[in-house]
Amino acid sequence: MSEHIAILAGGCFWCTEAVFAQLDGVGRVESGYIGGHMPDPDYRSVCAGTTGHAEAIRIIFDPDRISYGDLLDIFFATHDPTQLNRQGNDVGTQYRSAIFPVDAAQEAAARAGINRAQVEWPHPIVTTIEPMATWYPAEDYHQDYWVGEGQRNPYCLAVIPPKLAKLKKGWSERLK
After folding, report:
1. What helix, strand, coil percent values describe the chain, rounded to 5?
2. pLDDT per residue over 63-79, tens digit each?
3. For residue 166, which of 55, 76, 117, 172 sits 20 to 30 Å off, Cα-Cα?
């Protein structure tokens, strides 16, 4: 099995992690921080919006089972890429929609993914393609949040089930 990495930021990492953890071909999803200027950020500092980091997920996937393009299409279908520096009630650059390609091929695929997705959205997509930067894993209590604490968290209960419904409706053949 070949393992590749995709790094995506689509708002709250609890919410994006819950979606991508459901996919066949995805071995692991890790919540973390990327794209900022402060070394070793923590949740409190990132949430304050002063570090420049985005809440993001790092997806370890098998490209023989799910392509990077499919991951991008699912990314654009399960969050609102037309909201600048926010997702719903989460506001700030830490909740921006961004793609962090690991190489030139992923960067080209990200541009193509934005073009494909734009057909589905009535407003311009504002997702940025940002340079690869240091990845900082989030604290342990953020990992696999939906399967643990998240299903008792009112915020998660309001936001994650509609994302999972979109995933099941459009991508049922890709689920584990």
Report:
1. 40, 20, 40
2. 999 999 999 999 999 99
3. 55
The two three-digit tokens of residue 166, written as one number: 């979109």
> Which tens digit of pLDDT belongs to each residue from 126-146?
999 999 999 999 999 999 999
Q: What does the alpha-carbon distance between residue 85 and residue 92 come to, in Å, rounded to a whole number? A: 5
**Helix, strand or coil, per DSSP, at residue 147:** coil
Q: Which of 12, 15, 47, 156 is catalytic?
A: 12
Tell me the C-alpha distance between 134 and 9, whole Å.
14
Distance, in Å, from the CA atom of 85 to the CA atom of 131, rounded to the nearest integer, reads 17
CATH code for the domain in which residue 23 is found: 3.30.1060.10
The total number of structural domains in the chain stands at 1
DSSP 34: E
Domain carrying residue 169: 4-174
User: Is 12 tagged catalytic?
Assistant: yes
Cβ count near 14 (within 10 Å): 23
Q: Where are the alpha helices (H) located in 60-103, listed in sequence order?
A: 68-77
| pLDDT greater than 70 at residue 1 | no
The radius of gyration computed from the CA coordinates of the chain, to the nearest angstrom, equals 15
Closest CA to 78 of 28, 152, 15, 144: 15
Instruction: With beta carbons less than 8 A apart as the criterion, state whether 94 and 49 touch.
Output: yes
